[in-house]
């Protein structure tokens, strides 16, 4: 069986209506599969004005806006129209990418027809409740996720550290790696632009601490701002640049009144913004990989990150950045102070990170997923013959 023989039904809770690292990876995967001759049908909630055009054929599933977070939608049902479309498409493998109700119905639909199911894990959903004073729900959510993932034939995780977490949580016993790549035609140290910095009122020799990502509390905005407070109390010379948008922007601006908020940036503009920083600070513990970390490394920046899934697979502590115990404000501040006060250390660790980023080729990474589809199809056919 070849990649061109694949017919993949992909279920996503957010394929393109709000931009994030997970759905950009999914769109890139679909684009690669289509170029190899595979057939792909995507099922996801849709909106009138999505964040970016969808790659491939997109079928809308019934959904509703999430209360208090209306930019996101909850898939509600595998409707009759969607089921009919699915039957007509006749996939030979089903891929779910979010643990919602429609994904669960899709797994049930596939199992009834003896089709293999692959689940990709893009974020640590169980950790989100920590940011809303509901951490007591984490064990329940973990158990709820386990019931779904054990019904799948295999999982793919974006890093070995995340795969290990999934094994420890007993989510499944067949877990492959679907890493993430970086576009080296865009992300490169040469994108650094001192004039862009100057337009923000930043001197050429001012150390810039960057934040990159969607502005939501689960990205560790509280830890980021508390750490910056510590740097101020220590009289460490620095400037903060925040790249991204989100519902917590107002809160973040209040906590960081001296920061430069440049909003959403994409493509070459994003690469310019990242390369014009001097270090990236990523305190989040919810990412399973950390696309922003890899993009910063490709631009030659040292990264100070929480010692959590994703970052641990990318950052080499004390060589290309620092890995700090999650929530350890004083340790984060000390790591950032070292980079702020030593241009030589920044350059040394940034160069090591850029070298590490060369290992991440998108085509090779996405072919690994295609190979997993093919393996699962073969296994299911072998099982059927032996039955």
TrEMBL record:
Enzyme class: transferase
Family matches, as Pfam families: Glyco_trans_1_4, Glyco_transf_4
EC number: 2.4.-.-
SUPFAM superfamilies the record matches: UDP-Glycosyltransferase/glycogen phosphorylase
Segments crossing the lipid bilayer: none
UniProt keyword Protein biosynthesis present: no
Top-level taxon of the source organism: Bacteria
Keywords in alphabetical order: Glycosyltransferase, Transferase
GO molecular function per UniProt: glycosyltransferase activity
CDD domains in UniProt: GT4-like (cd03814)
Span of domain Glycosyltransferase subfamily 4-like N-terminal: 20-185
Glycosyltransferase is among the record's keywords: yes
InterPro entries cross-referenced by the UniProt entry: Glyco_trans_4-like_N, Glycosyltransferase_grp1
Gene3D superfamilies: Glycogen Phosphorylase B (3.40.50.2000)
Protein name: Glycosyltransferase family 4 protein
